[in-house]
């Protein structure tokens, strides 16, 4: 706003206010006294420009954007630690609480999954915890330990939220208020859970069930009365609860919410991450009771998006000196990058479409490729429409 208010402009305005009968040339007393003042005023205008820039959400730097976000109850997501699966032999050994190392990264075993399998947490927060697998070295000697290996990511680690992502959440807060279990509320709370990348919210996801079909008919009641005396414990309790709820017409399709998630690496969420989100939002043991973040009366089911393998077959023409042997990896990386772009858009679309034209374009951008023809996706020359809860992953490329 004040970019044209320079030292020279300010100084000239000041000198113009001095009568011409006085000496105003450079080096004169008047010029020498006005010049430092003009410099200070220019600095003041520069600071005013900074204040204006930092006062608005679309131009504020990270420090001041965080202050703006606080006014909306929004805070940047902190970096989180990756949780991985560790496999140890012999399977009878207990390594809970032990620390291990791969390169410069240290890990600590936090809990047992099964015999020989443990949850291992990276001690360094951020995506760096997702990058290393293989043999681990114990930091302290563990008697009887034969092997220790990291095999898979359970909950991906995340870096501190990027400034532009925070800015996007700030502006989104004006579009739709997150309150009381509405769609925006579920998206905000679920996406904030460490390891979650994107979420789809489906209301009344079991609406295909008719409440009338749940009411037990006479034949069902006869069967129930005949079998209940043979049951005991949890089985008897469950059957009694379901039968009487149906008999009294308490069963309904209302109040159900389906949360479908992908992880922060934009891939299929692990069972551990799904369970973590389920427990945080609506613990199964107290479903609908309001013991999680979901409101009382909302029965929430959490699932991962399903991976859809994408197999590409195409006919390629190469430049001299190039061929399938030295370009296969580059071609696969190009297609994988396209599928990753689609997965990032998954939560904002009804369903994804894998387009042949896009695949051809990505392949043609690989240096050494002259032409591409007859491209097919999963054996078809047509674009592939995915289901609402499906995400594309590369299943292979052949030429």
Description:
With about 400 residues, the protein is α+β, with helices and mostly antiparallel strands. The chain folds into 5 domains: about 5-55; about 85-155, no CATH class; about 175-205 and about 255-305, 2-Layer Sandwich (GMP Synthetase, Chain A, domain 3); about 210-245, no CATH class; about 305-399, no CATH class. It has helices at about 5-15, 30-55, 60-70, 165-175, 185-190, 210-215, 220-225, 235-245, 270-280, 325-345, 355-365, and strands at about 85-90, 100, 105-115, 115-120, 135, 135-140, 145-155, 195-205, 255-265, 300-305, 305-320, 355, 370-375, 385, 390-399. Strand 3 and strand 4 (about 115-120) form a beta hairpin. It is extended, with a radius of gyration of 31 Å.
For this entry, give a set of tags.
GMP Synthetase, Chain A, domain 3, 5 domains, 7-stranded antiparallel β-sheet, 15 strands, 3-stranded mixed β-sheet, alpha+beta, 399 residues
Q: Treating each run of at least 4 consecutive H or I residues as one helix, how many helices?
A: 11
General shape: extended
Strand order of the largest sheet: 5-7-1-4-3-2-6
Annotation, overall tally of beta strands? 15
The largest β sheet comes out as: 7 strands, antiparallel
Give the quaternary arrangement of the chains. Answer: single chain
Kindly estimate the percentage of residues that lie in beta strands according to DSSP. 15-25%
| Unreliable runs | none
Structural class: alpha+beta
* Mean residue pLDDT: 90
Please give the alpha-carbon distance between the first and last residues.
57 Å
Elements, N to C (H/E): HHHEEEEEEEHHEHHHEHEEHEHEEE
Count of domains: 5
Query: Helix share of residues?
Result: 25-40%
Rg over alpha carbons? 31 Å
């Amino acid at each position: 706003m004040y970019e044209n208010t320079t030292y020279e402009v300010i100084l000239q305005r000041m000198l113009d206010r001095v009568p011409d009968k006085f000496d105003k040339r450079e080096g004169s007393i008047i010029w020498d006294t006005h010049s430092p003042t003009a410099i200070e005023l220019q600095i003041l205008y520069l600071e005013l420009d900074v204040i204006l820039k930092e006062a608005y959400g679309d131009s504020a730097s990270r420090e001041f954007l965080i202050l703006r976000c606080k006014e909306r109850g929004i805070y940047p997501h902190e970096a989180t630690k990756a949780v991985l699966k560790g496999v140890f032999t012999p399977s009878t050994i207990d390594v809970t609480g032990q620390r291990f190392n791969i390169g410069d990264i240290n890990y600590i075993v936090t809990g047992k999954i099964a015999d020989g399998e443990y949850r291992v947490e990276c001690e360094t927060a951020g995506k760096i915890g997702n990058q290393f697998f293989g043999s681990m070295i114990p930091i302290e000697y563990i008697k009887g330990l034969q092997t220790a290996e990291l095999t898979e990511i359970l909950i991906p680690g995340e870096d501190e939220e990027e400034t532009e992502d925070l800015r996007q959440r700030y502006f989104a807060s004006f579009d739709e208020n997150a309150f009381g279990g509405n769609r925006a509320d579920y998206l905000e709370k679920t996406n904030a859970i460490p390891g979650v990348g994107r979420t789809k919210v489906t209301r009344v996801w079991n609406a295909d069930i008719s409440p009338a079909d749940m009411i037990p008919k006479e034949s069902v009641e006869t069967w129930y009365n005949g079998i209940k005396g043979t049951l005991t414990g949890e089985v008897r309790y469950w059957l009694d609860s379901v039968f009487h709820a149906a008999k009294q017409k308490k069963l309904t399709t209302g109040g159900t919410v389906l949360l479908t998630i992908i992880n922060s690496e934009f891939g299929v969420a692990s069972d551990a991450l799904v369970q973590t989100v389920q427990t945080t939002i609506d613990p199964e043991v107290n479903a609908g009771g309001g013991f999680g973040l979901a409101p009382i009366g909302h029965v929430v089911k959490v699932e991962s998006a399903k991976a859809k393998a994408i197999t590409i077959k195409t006919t390629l023409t190469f430049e001299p000196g190039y061929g399938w042997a030295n370009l296969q990896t580059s071609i696969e990386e190009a297609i994988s990058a396209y599928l990753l772009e689609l997965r990032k858009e998954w939560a904002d679309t009804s369903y994804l479409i894998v387009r042949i034209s896009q695949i051809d374009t990505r392949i043609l951008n690989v240096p050494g490729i002259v032409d591409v023809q007859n491209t097919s996706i999963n054996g078809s020359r047509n674009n592939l429409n995915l289901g609402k809860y499906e995400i594309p992953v590369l299943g292979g490329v052949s030429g």
